[in-house]
Amino acid sequence: xxxxxxxxxxxxxxxxxxxxxxxxxxxxxxxxxxxxxxxxxxxxxxxxxxxxxxxxxxxxxxxxxxxxxxxxxxxxxxxxxxxxxxxxxxxxxxxxxxxxxxxxxxxxxxxxxxxxxxxxxxxxxxxxxxxxxxxxxxxxxxxxxxxxxxxxxxxxxxxxxxxxxxxxxxxxxxxxxxxxxxxxxxxxxxxxxxxxxxxxxxxxxxxxxxxxxxxxxxxxxxxxxxxxxxxxxxxxxxxxxxxxxxxxxxxxxxxxxxxxxxxxxxxxxxxxxxxxxxxxxxxxxxxxxxxxxxxxxxxxxxxxxxxxxxxxxxxxxxxxxxxxxxxxxxxxxxxxxxxxxxxxxxxxxxxxxxxxxxxxxxxxxxxxxxxxxxxxxxxxxxxxxxxxxxxxxxxxxxxxxxxxxxxxxxxxxxxxxxxxxxxxxxxxxxxxxxxxxxxxxxxxxxxxxxxxxxxxxxxxxxxxxxxxxx
Length: 470
Ligand code: FAD
Ligand code: MLT
Ligand code: ZN
Hints:
By secondary structure, this protein is an alpha+beta fold. It has 16 helices and 18 strands.
């Protein structure tokens, strides 16, 4: 059966676009190197019709499909399991910008378009596609939508869902749903687009999307400010929101230990602040540079007068702004270099964050006294990356084996007690399926299973991801 399937797949895509031999690590191992699977093959279609043909072939042979974009996902949802039975369906060759409609403020792009290329297509028309992630040079718009990615501009422009107007999707039966609408208003029935966004490849294969573009702000300005404590950070956020309103486009939190890890693994990155307890990366947009500078300086002066901010630097050039962003975006890379760690991508009401931080760390240390806690994230959205690194000298594998379950329990109990979420922006994938089973309400799970059963009755789309077995 495997041989007949592969032969038919080759006939459909051509030999070079069906990978079975050689080094397939790029497709079989996830970015964090927590999941290493084995694929039946990697299929690389070039157009929607080929995706549909591959899905029909899989349906007739009962072959499970793992859709994959840039393979930068952090929850193990885009790599095959170890069975050697799952087909990786890579969208990487479908990378065309089909159209930009500047008057309608939309772009229609294929799923395998790298996020940076979508941004560039908007820029070429004097417009902005505001989804911004540290992985933007490799992740794809299909993967962004499938995981409803967030990133650093959500407080101003929303997450991937809010930036998408229409989708083209290949269904589990191999049919093409053309929902590539650029309409801002369309109440003609259930919103199918929103079903597929965030479904992590379990309900359909996204082959193209119509995304929202925005006017480019006249100027943006970036600053890095030191804050003495988390209460001061929250007070700064309050002040920034009230002074800047929609002009506040980024408010990123970085705890001191994250900067210490950066210094260890990226010594060439210039750190302008002197070992702050907390740092905040602020981005402000305004009509022109003078206005942006006036507004940002007024905010920082006021915050400093109230003791909310100590040292602060405002980027004097675009190159300096890029350097400040590079500091923030390199934190996950520094953590990866430090060793495998436990990631908690959590959402909380912003007001609950100080209480959460004060309560949880002592509890975690009661179990692992020398635990290293790495905190950063998109504070403006209430999204913390509350990551746990093994004590210095403890092998990461031992740390995960002995402590992951209990540390997770402690963190997620505290998150849910405050009305938070155990997955803010990275999704569920394979990593958090057990949390879904344990922590999602039975009603929510039953509704999700009903949807899955309706759209993928044979369970061939990314099985084992997102939904726990019944
Ligand atoms: P993949 O990793 O290939 O796939 C992700 C999921 O989507 C998988 O379940 C896969 O099966 C499914 N999928 C992929 N393509 C399709 C498709 N066309 N149709 C259906 N299903 C599909 N995430 C954030 O939200 N915010 C951040 O700030 C952020 N920063 C990051 C920084 C770094 C350094 C890294 C490594 C990752 C970061 N991520 C972030 C996570 C990741 O980049 C995003 O989740 C991204 O959206 C994944 O895109 P991808 O193309 O790599 O998807
Ligand atoms: C980030 O905000 O840097 C990303 O979500 C990636 C990560 O946390 O690893
Ligand atoms: Zn993030």
